[in-house]
Request: fold
Amino acid sequence: MAGLGFTGQLTLDDPVRFDRAAPPAAIVIFGATGDLTRRKLLPALFRLAQERRLPATFAVLGVSRTPLSDDLFRQKMRESVETFLENSPFDADLWASFAQGLFYLDGDIGDPGLYQRLSDKLAWIETHRRTGGNVLFYLSTQPSHYGPAAAGLGAAGLARGPRPESWQRLLIEKPFGHDLASAQSLNATVQRHFQEDQIYRIDHYLGKETVQNILAFRFGNGIFEPLWNRRYVNHIQITAAESIGVEGRGGYYQEAGALRDMIQNHLLQVMATIAMEPPAVYEPAAVRDERAKLLRSIRIMTSAEAKLDSVAGQYGPGRAGGAQLAGFRQEPGVDPQAMTDTYAALTLFVENWRWAGVPFYVRSGKRLPKRVTDIAIQFNRAPLSLYDGEAAQNYPNLLVLRIQPEEGISLRFFSKLPGAGMRIRPVTMDFNYGTSFGVRTPSAYETLLLDALSGDATLYTRQDMVEASWRVVEPVLRCWQETHHGFPNYAAGSWGPAASDEMLARRGHIWRLP
Ligand code: BG6
Reply:
């Protein structure tokens, strides 16, 4: 049954293990009644258990304000896992064994008493679940609680374990700060209590299989890397389109906006993965150094450049799939005058020898016509077309790395049209993950939780990367504060504001329809 998952009769004590499993540990989740825990974290942990990657000696301790018994917490988590477990059936027998490892503690993050009770509960868990004193603290609360939680853990002595051979790690959800200064200050607070090698800043895009595959594609093949530079690449488009609106997160999103919510973190990390230099070895420090170096090489815009090379959008009412959609300002919890960007697009340049002068167009938005994330690398046209000049002009070679929901890679090139004469047409060569490998791809949270438990920080961001990314977006945030945007400026269900097309048109380019 190797690789096919759990069939129903195993319990967590069963000795079967796949290639990589987590060591004994307690996972303490701050924000245990929140959306992320319900939708992503518990389903990912249960899935790891199904895959036999979680040992019997694990525990999850949920921490939140709401008073709940362990049993009630288990019941709530069961409902969440049954609802949000993707691509595999819920296994009630395994749940019974898994649920024995779930515990709950209520309290206020700002209250020092909470950390004392936490310490006692962890000692109890260590004895009863044999977790070896290893603890992963997962901060999945409101961002304003990250600093106080790290400080509370530090003051209670929980940042250091009972024995030198045990480990303690702190996993921090995004957003890491809302600008450079707040990111630096959060970091200073956290680093007063935890060493950098204990800190795991999550960016779930880096955990996506297809994002990880970018490195395998680039550095596992000999034929693409020679073309991966300014001599052959004309420009690159990175798109993360979402069809959903703000889905009940109006309060958070209104303060964040698309540039902070998606571009500062996820898309700049994707861009770094596309554009970085090959690391000397595939080891956490080497890979992260190259990502960080690339982020530092992105040109910081002047305020004049920010005006031209950025576009903010906000959706108004519109239609999609025959349904009427509300505008952002009509969403629950949103101020009817909100100046939030629900769409953001940037033209970025990387100032290094490989990429100088190549535009990287990056865009993300809510309420666009469909959910699609992809990266399109457009190559220069052939220097001279012997055949159909117009076709060659309009369809240069294009390599598309499809991140989601379809997962694959396609290459567009020209082929002779069958029949008399020498006419050419663009065709595509397609690779599709599902049909090629026929296995379920793990969710980003499964991958990242397993990595953090195993002490592998390759796919986590470091403080220098977080700061470099804030430096890139700050001039744009400043410029937008002083701009009259005329929001709403695109209809829900459309591809964003016209100004975004104009931004590309200035350099002779057009957004590709993903
Ligand atoms: C989150 C953002 O980080 O990423 C959300 O806060 C967004 O607004 C989500 O919807 C998108 O993630 P995914 O994995 O669905 O592309």
